[in-house]
Amino acid sequence: MFDKSIQIKVEKEDKDKYLMFYDGTIEYMSATATGGRSTRMLMNKIIDFVKNEMKNNDPSHDFKHVERVVDLTRQIAKSENYQGDMELLEVAAYLHDVNDWKYSGSETAGVEAARLFLADQSYPEDKIEKVCQIIQDISFKNELGNTSMKSIPIESMIVQDADRLDAMGAVGVARTFSYGALKKNTFYEEETFQRTIGDKTLTKDEYMKTSRAGSSTLDHFYDKLFILKDRIKTQTGKRMAQERHQFIWIERERDKQNNEY
């Protein structure tokens, strides 16, 4: 039930400045509230939207992945002493994998979905463009062969690092095999064990082709996971990546040893 004393106070003041929630809490709408909605209400709508859009995805790109990326985004931003728009980072982190190209078949579907949804929420146009830019910058495939990606804004660096960190470590390994199973990829090919780190750098088109289907799951480790630590941008992200990379490296050495017998 609502706290009656607080409710009376709200009714005496400008009710348009407050929002009352079903859990009985009352939140003051700050000057940063957008289109008559508080950050909390906006985030709730985003969460519902993302959950619905990703409900049929396999565990490699489900809502749990999104939650981990949002949490990592917060951790990195705090450690990097980020002083910018935290709401912007979280919005981008929540929306970054909606209509992902690996599932939708379209490189632009994700950005278009984010733009339309945020416009429906009366989110400021300048912020919508920044969110969409972050979503585009996050992409691993777009960075292949693109040296200009080194100059992306700090906002993009933070969310990009968060997404890449979730592709590393134990969770990253599990996600890789989950996606491989979805695509019915083989675990490995015999020639996979002859590969070395950095033996070849895929172009964007080559990477997209192998990600859709046709490559072994273990090849994906060489194509992406083993080189991710060198593509992390923030200092915090680099520290976090070392431990996660070490886990992947140990598993690689075990596989290599097992194959020698």
Automatic annotation (TrEMBL):
Pfam families: HD (PF01966). Residues 58-177 form the HD/PDEase domain. It comes from the Eukaryota. InterPro entries: HD/PDEase_dom, HD_domain. PANTHER family: HD_PDEASE DOMAIN-CONTAINING PROTEIN, SUPERFAMILY HYDROLASE, PUTATIVE (AFU_ORTHOLOGUE AFUA_1G03035)-RELATED. This is HD/PDEase domain-containing protein. It comes from Cavenderia fasciculata (Slime mold).
